[in-house]
Design goal:
Elements lengths: L5 E5 L5 H17 L5 E8 L10 E9 L3 E7 L10 H24 L1
Parallel strand pairs: 1-2
Antiparallel strand pairs: 2-3, 3-4
Helix pairs in contact: 1-2
């Protein structure tokens, strides 16, 4: 990547285990698309007093040359209310990997 990986936390303390998981999943993304220009990951804990839904949200913002951008947000809406933040991170990267593969195939054809 041209720009180093950015990891931000909102409403949750930074965690070395989460950082390691995010770096590992980002490295796997780079294997799919080795020309990504940047990747920003935001791990967020929503308000404390919500009545339903999962309290965590993970957003990936990936830039690829030729003005392509992949944005993935997990943890909103239909996500399992009892999923932990690690499951949501894995799910977000799984979705991003699928979208990245589709973009790479589209660019090659």
């Amino acid at each position: 990547m041209q720009v180093p990986l950015e990891i931000a936390y909102r409403g949750i303390d930074p965690n070395p285990e989460m950082d390691d998981l995010i770096r590992e999943k980002t490295a796997k993304l780079e294997q799919v698309c080795d020309y990504m220009t940047s990747c920003r990951v935001v791990v967020e804990k929503k308000q404390e007093h919500q009545s339903s839904g999962n309290p965590f949200r993970v957003r990936l913002d990936i830039n690829v040359p030729h003005d392509n951008r992949i944005v993935v947000t997990e943890g909103e809406g239909g996500t399992d209310m009892h999923a932990n933040v690690y499951q949501i991170i894995r799910s977000a990267f799984k979705t991003a990997q699928r979208q990245t593969r589709e973009l790479v195939e589209q660019q090659r054809s």
